[in-house]
């Protein structure tokens, strides 16, 4: 103990030097360990372990692609109310009517009745003389443009005779009491068969009754070529068929009005 008391400074210095020597000897191992730890961290960041991808659910993007394949149809025309303001018109009775082409104008016209117009041929009588038999045939053209031509008129003819309407082709049976006459119509070349009891009838056209409710206007027995005045304009009837009437505006725009028996 006496030695320690006398030389404790040297002993303490030796212990410190020994510790430093051990530390110096351990330092390379520590440095290598730290380098390896840093390298492991770098590799973990630059080359991470990637898990294999699972099956992706593509149903949502596929549905979006399908919707995009069909272009969206945006209609800004009537009856769209956001970009097309609604106009109203007062009728003659004071009622407000939506001002569009389905309530005002030719499309608001209603066909209440369509009547067929016939070409009718009848065998009215037979006259026999020394020159032969003559047949009196009644002709009625309900579709004639001139009202005077719509009344029944009679034509006398014999076999082979021709007039502005028909030609008498043949007579069957006794000359004074024929069983059948065969005519050929000039306009179509159609054969028409006549007897005393059975006239010939053919639809040659139509006339129509119409109504325009906004102005309480009605028109009866209107024919092709007539002009209807309504909605502040003139509309010409250019065609009438069994189920429709076609109007022509001054702007040359045609409007087809369908006929329903329930109108």
Rg, Cα atoms, Å: 53 Å
Structural class: alpha+beta
Number of helices: 2
Strand arrangement within the widest β-sheet reads 5-4-3-9-10
Find the count of extended strands (DSSP E, 2+ residues).
Answer: 14
Percent of residues in β-strands: 35-45%
Helix amount = 10-25%
Major sheet, described briefly? 5 strands, antiparallel
Instruction: Give the averaged pLDDT, no decimals.
Output: 85
Choose one word for the global shape.
Answer: rod-shaped
Q: Termini separation (Å)?
A: 138 Å
**Which sequence of SSEs, written as H and E, runs from N to C?**
HHEEEEEEEEEEEEEE
Query: Which consecutive residue ranges, at least 5 long each, have pLDDT under 50?
Result: none
What would you say about this model in short?
The chain is an alpha+beta fold. It has a domain of 88 residues. It contains two helices and 14 strands, in the order H-H-E-E-E-E-E-E-E-E-E-E-E-E-E-E.
Write the layout of secondary structure elements.
Elements (H helix, E strand, L loop, with lengths): L1 H45 L12 H11 L18 E3 L5 E3 L10 E21 L2 E10 L11 E5 L8 E7 L7 E6 L5 E4 L5 E13 L4 E6 L4 E4 L2 E9 L2 E5 L5 E5 L5
């Amino acid at each position: 103990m006496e030695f320690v008391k006398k030389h404790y400074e040297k002993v303490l210095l030796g212990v410190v030097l020994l510790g430093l020597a051990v530390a110096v000897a351990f330092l390379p191992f520590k440095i290598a360990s730290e380098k390896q730890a840093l390298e492991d961290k770098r590799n973990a960041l630059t080359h991470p372990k990637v898990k294999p991808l699972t099956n992706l659910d593509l149903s949502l993007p596929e549905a979006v692609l399908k919707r995009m394949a069909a272009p969206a149809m945006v209609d800004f025309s009537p009856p769209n109310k956001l970009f097309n303001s609604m106009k109203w018109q007062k009728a003659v009775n004071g009622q407000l009517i939506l001002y569009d082409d389905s309530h005002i104008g030719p499309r608001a016209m209603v066909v209440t009745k369509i009547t067929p117009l016939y070409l009718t041929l009848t065998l009215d009588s037979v006259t026999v003389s020394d020159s032969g038999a003559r047949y009196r045939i009644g002709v009625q053209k309900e579709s004639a443009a001139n009202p005077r031509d719509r009344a029944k008129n009679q034509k006398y003819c014999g076999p082979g005779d021709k007039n502005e309407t028909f030609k008498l082709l043949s007579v069957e049976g006794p000359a004074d009491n024929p069983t059948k006459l065969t005519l050929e119509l000039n306009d179509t070349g159609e054969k028409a068969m006549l007897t005393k009891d059975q006239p010939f009838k053919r639809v040659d056209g139509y006339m129509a009754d119409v109504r325009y409710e906004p102005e309480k206007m009605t028109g009866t027995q209107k024919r092709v070529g007539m002009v209807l005045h309504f909605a502040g304009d003139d509309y010409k009837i250019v065609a009438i068929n069994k189920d429709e009437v076609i109007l022509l505006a001054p702007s040359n725009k045609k409007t087809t009005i369908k006929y329903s028996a329930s109108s």
